[in-house]
Amino acid sequence: MTGREELGASELLTALVARLGLDWSGFRRVQGTVRKRLRRRAAELGLEDLEAYAAYLETSADEWERLDAMCRIPISRFYRDQVVFEHLAQTVLPELAERARRAKRQLIRVWSAGCASGEEPYSIAIAWRLAIQAAYPNVQLDVLGTDLDARMLQRARRGCYPRGTLRELPERWQEAAFDVIGESCCLRQELRSRVRFECGDLRSRIAEGPFDIVSCRNLAFTYFDKGSRARVANALIDVLRPGGVLLIGSKEELPPGIGRVRERHRGIYEKPEDREPP
Fold it and tell me: Looking at the structure, do residues 89 and 182 belong to the same domain, yes or no?
């Protein structure tokens, strides 16, 4: 592909994904992957190139859903970004547990938005069970994972993963949380039962709060367009309990002008606590 053709393809894809509420510039590290998917799809349809595929989209409403699926980049592993998870396990979760105990609340609620195949919500459940719960036996953790891809959620519910996805998880937790079955590491039922999964599109559906932790990492603030990012950021903060935390990717930024939270650690924002009733 010549430089002019490359530029033309980028302009075309920028316009197409914008109609899905996405920002093509956010795909900069994976643009090649998405282009390959689209060219493969065009070939399946007997179309010559991306321009022909764009024209086909105008005649097929159902194909937009297929395009949306081809733009998903489900990169996930346990304890992804160790520094963030260590701060979560060593500081955030104990603080939330202590706050819940003082308020005589028996439940800490967590929402992992865009959870892919479940590694992130399970990581939080593992950290709670193995590092926190013994000190707070009267406080329970409720974890909700949501994702748009139903196939990824089926994998999450099974709870079995290649060994490589566990490489950042502390070794002692790997041994305590997983059974090795052939080439897979399968999360034990006690931990799987602590996380529930639902299918949902963050662009159109916000889970019902309040939550003590809302995690939206490497999704909205990377791939969504500017308007969608601001709308989602405000919606996530709305369902966050005062004193709760919002997790975003360590290389992401909240949109300009978003208030009501303050950064306490890279990728971790806190909603200031008010006089919350018990």
Answer: yes
Residue 277 domain-assigned? no
Does residue 260 form part of some domain?
Answer: yes
| 204 and 242 belong to one structural domain | yes
Domain boundary among 47, 70, 93: 70
Burial of 92 by CB count in 10 Å (0-12 exposed, 13-18 middle, 19+ buried)?
Answer: buried
Nearest to 71 by CA among 1, 6, 148, 150: 148
| C-beta separation of 202 from 230 below 8 A | no
CB neighbour burial string for 168-183, b if at least 16 within 10 angstroms, e if fewer? ebbeebbeebbeeeee
Q: How far apart are CA 276 and CA 278, in angstroms?
A: 6
Task: Give 10-residue mean pLDDT values along the chain (278 residues).
Answer: 52 95 93 94 95 95 96 90 93 96 96 97 97 96 96 96 95 96 95 96 95 97 96 97 96 93 94 66
For residue 76, being part of any structural domain is answered with: no
User: What are φ and ψ of residue 140, in 5° steps?
Assistant: -110, 160
